[in-house]
Design a protein that fits this description.
single chain, about 280 residues, mainly alpha, 12 helices
């Protein structure tokens, strides 16, 4: 346990000093504040709280930015150690390889959590007071978004470890991380939309599509948040209003990213066992 906490503390220090992470946190905050400024415009038409509208916008933003930040944190977790020649020292220690990954995971998730809490926390408070305050229940939407964004980020951190442990060069790991992000948040949904267009009332649309939507952790995250704030009434895109058609609903939808995180950590540990100290 001491080894895990030591590794986690080291990763937190490294992560907070990493300029890419600082830049990503600032981008997250800037985009969130921009959405706060423009997100209150439609509230008069749909009769909803300004914070709720902002949370709906931020949930869409999170699908793209949070996985990217997570992969930036994790893509060199193992490959970077190999490049720097420090992995041999780590593996020669009494700490098991699973404990090494767990320590890195805790540290990286902590860094990501700080970025999300700062970015979305400030944006949520600004939206709350800009809307006149009063309705404290609206802050529950912000808290739910923050927690679910951290879960989504943790999933992609764990997935990034698979890419990092599978190669020996940081550049190759970075390319794999970008490919994972592109597939998970862009190409996957395009493929689903193409399938819907090809089979609007067929087996794919009625049977496969709901399961495939929940299977993707990014789409599961979007489903959970959009349905939680009744996004169907706000004219949402893919994922919004699909809660009644999907095999899972409510908090159960978040089983998908949690399961992906556990599976990815297990697979990355197996891949690490192939690395010789």
């Amino acid at each position: 346990m001491h080894g895990i906490s030591t590794i986690a503390a080291t990763e937190i220090r490294i992560g907070l000093r990493n300029r890419w992470i600082i830049l990503s946190s600032l981008i997250l905050l800037v985009f969130a504040l921009i959405l706060v400024l423009i997100g209150s415009a439609p509230t008069g038409e749909i009769k909803t709280n300004a914070v709720t509208v902002v949370v709906a916008s931020l949930s869409t933003l999170s699908v793209y930015l949070v996985p990217l930040i997570a992969l930036l944190l994790s893509f060199d977790a193992i490959a970077g150690e190999i490049d720097r020649g420090t992995l041999q020292l780590v593996l020669a220690s009494p700490v098991s390889r699973g404990a090494v990954l767990l320590g890195k995971f805790i540290g990286h998730v902590t860094v990501l959590s700080i970025a999300v809490i700062i970015g979305y926390g400030i944006a949520g408070l600004v939206a709350f007071y800009a809307g006149g305050g009063g309705d404290w229940s609206a802050l529950v939407d912000v808290a739910r978004l923050i927690v679910s964004s951290i879960v989504l980020g943790a999933t992609f951190i764990a997935i990034g470890y698979i890419a990092s442990a599978s190669v020996r060069q940081t550049g190759t790991a970075a390319a794999l991380a970008v490919a994972i992000w592109l597939f998970a948040v862009v190409l996957y949904d395009l493929a689903l939309l193409g399938g819907l267009l090809a089979s609007q009332d067929g087996v794919f649309a009625r049977t496969l599509f709901p399961w495939l939507l929940v299977l993707n952790p990014a789409d599961a995250f979007r489903l959970y948040n959009m349905n939680a704030i009744d996004a169907a009434a706000m004219g949402s895109n893919l994922g919004g209003g699909m809660g009644s058609a999907t095999p899972l609903s409510g908090l159960a939808v978040m089983i998908s990213p949690v399961a992906w995180a556990m599976l990815a950590l297990g697979l990355s540990t197996l891949v690490m066992h192939r690395i010789r100290p």
